């Protein structure tokens, strides 16, 4: 159920204040240390950011998709690594359980994910199975009242700090969707090995690593929904929501970048006048604003469709494709407007330029979004 307007506005105001007063001033510290400071994690938990859209039955705020994206527009105003920590818990880190968990699995894990006591992680990608996720090889074999998992997952967000992994594993050899099942694997399970944090281009503080299963034994009750064969379809549904969330984040970041670029253009003088007065600079500002506005409208429209219970696979892919490419162009122009300063790490645009490159790659590359959009469109018109 949607929040009343006043409550939603209060929440958005509180998040906006938190972002401006606490997160933006901590961006440099995060970039240098690669760790979200513990006092900020606590404040994020107190604000309810780990459980924004998890049902109030499980301790979350129960936001609709439209409400969630409006909050994420605010969270996008700062380094995306802050969002990555809490956003994974309401997105890919919890959605498999929300969509397909048993009552017991929901009751067991969702309250801890909603409060941030437990960090969630979603493990689909493998060294030889990225865009072609259906070719994944991590296996799960039934052994009495347990399953035994073997194989390696790669680039798994939050793995070094996660308490719970939604792991897609093969329970039948054939290449088809219902050969893949999802397991809820707790940190500390015997045979679960977490790799060293990956060294990345950007998003310092948003940790990823390998997750290795070496005869990792989990109870049969770890099988999501108590049923084999629903893992691949559940993953695709999880990503439908995740893609809208990431699109909203790109809208927020583009807004921040445009603000930084305009502020710089007003301050920086060349040829005796602020560079904001040059029409070629204005063209970059105008193109960025127009694309940002289009992305914002798309994301809100798709979020409302999802709230009405409509299938948004195509719309989520359109939003992900357009918003992630859009924020890349906006970041590039923001660097250009800053001139040489935009290449220096003391300016936030340099960091954001590297941070946003990821969005065109994870949760389905731009090419995969194009394939999804084309497939759904051809299906609809055939
Ligand atoms: C920082 C980071 C965090 C991540 N977090 C997670 C996570 O939490 N959980 C998780 O499971 N995964 C995660 N990933 C993995 C991510 O989802 C994959 O990297 C992504 O899906 C692409 O897979 P790949 O890297 O194997 O590239 P590949 O699939 O090898 O793609 C290489 C290139 O080929 C293109 N390509 C592939 N297939 C086609 C095709 N059919 N047609 C046209 N072009 C194609 C791609 O678009 C890309 O340009 C993360 C990745 C990164 C970098």
From TrEMBL:
Keyword Repeat assigned to the entry: answer is: no
Q: Does the keyword Transferase apply?
A: no
User: Which part of the chain is the Acyl-CoA dehydrogenase/oxidase C-terminal domain?
Assistant: 229-376
Name the UniProt key words of this record, in alphabetical order. Branched-chain amino acid catabolism, FAD, Flavoprotein, Oxidoreductase
Under Pfam families, the record lists: Acyl-CoA_dh_1, Acyl-CoA_dh_M, Acyl-CoA_dh_N
Q: Which Gene3D superfamilies match?
A: Acyl-CoA dehydrogenase/oxidase, N-terminal domain, Butyryl-CoA Dehydrogenase, subunit A, domain 2, Butyryl-CoA Dehydrogenase, subunit A, domain 3
Residue limits of the Acyl-CoA dehydrogenase/oxidase N-terminal domain? Answer: 5-117
InterPro entries tied to this protein: Acyl-CoA_DH_CS, Acyl-CoA_Oxase/DH_mid-dom, Acyl-CoA_Oxase/DH_mid-dom_sf, AcylCo_DH-like_C, AcylCo_DH/oxidase_C, AcylCoA_DH/ox_N, AcylCoA_DH/ox_N_sf, AcylCoA_DH/oxidase_NM_dom_sf
Cite the Acyl-CoA oxidase/dehydrogenase middle domain residue spans from the record. Answer: 121-216
Example of a GO biological process term: branched-chain amino acid catabolic process
GO MF, one term, reads:
acyl-CoA dehydrogenase activity
- E.C. number: 1.3.1.95
What the entry lists under PANTHER family is as follows: ACYL-COA DEHYDROGENASE
Per the similarity annotation, which family is this? Belongs to the acyl-CoA dehydrogenase family.
The name on file for this protein is Acryloyl-CoA reductase (NADH)
Q: Which organism is it from?
A: Achromobacter animicus
What phylogenetic lineage does the species belong to? Bacteria, Pseudomonadati, Pseudomonadota, Betaproteobacteria, Burkholderiales
The gene name reads acrC
């Amino acid at each position: 159920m949607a929040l009343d307007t006043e409550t939603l506005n209060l929440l958005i105001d509180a998040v906006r204040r938190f972002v401006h007063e606490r997160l933006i001033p901590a961006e440099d510290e995060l970039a240098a240390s690669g760790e979200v400071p513990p006092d900020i994690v606590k404040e994020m938990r107190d604000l309810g950011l780990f459980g924004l859209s998890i049902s109030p039955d499980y301790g979350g705020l129960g936001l609709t998709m439209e409400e969630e994206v409006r909050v994420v527009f605010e969270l996008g105003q700062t380094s995306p690594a802050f969002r990555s920590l809490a956003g994974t818990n309401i997105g890919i880190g919890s959605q498999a359980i929300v969509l397909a968990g048993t009552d017991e699995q929901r009751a067991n894990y969702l309250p801890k994910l909603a409060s941030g006591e437990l960090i969630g992680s979603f493990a689909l990608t493998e060294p030889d199975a990225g865009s072609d996720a259906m070719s994944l090889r991590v296996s799960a074999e039934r052994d009495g009242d347990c399953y035994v998992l073997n194989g390696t997952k790669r680039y798994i967000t939050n793995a070094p700090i996660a308490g719970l992994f939604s792991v897609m594993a093969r329970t039948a050899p054939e290449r088809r969707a219902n050969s893949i099942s999802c397991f809820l694997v707790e940190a500390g399970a015997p045979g679960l090995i977490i790799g060293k944090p990956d060294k990345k281009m950007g998003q310092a503080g948003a940790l990823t690593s390998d997750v290795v299963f070496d005869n990792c034994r989990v109870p049969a009750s770890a099988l999501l929904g108590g049923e084999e064969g629903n893992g691949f379809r559940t993953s695709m549904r999880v990503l439908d929501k995740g893609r809208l969330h990431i699109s909203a984040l790109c809208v927020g970041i583009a807004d921040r970048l445009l603000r930084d670029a305009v502020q710089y253009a007003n301050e920086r003088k060349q040829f005796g006048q602020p560079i904001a007065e040059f029409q070629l600079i204005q063209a970059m500002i105008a193109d960025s604003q127009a694309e940002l506005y289009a992305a914002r409208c798309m994301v809100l429209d798709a979020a409302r469709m999802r709230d009405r219970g409509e299938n948004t696979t195509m719309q989520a892919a359109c939003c992900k494709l357009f918003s992630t490419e859009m924020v890349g162009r906006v970041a590039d122009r923001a660097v250009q407007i800053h001139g040489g300063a935009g290449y220096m790490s003391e300016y936030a645009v340099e960091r954001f330029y590297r941070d946003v490159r990821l969005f065109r790659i994870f949760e389905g590359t731009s090419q995969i979004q194009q394939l999804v959009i084309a497939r759904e469109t051809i299906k609809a018109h055939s």
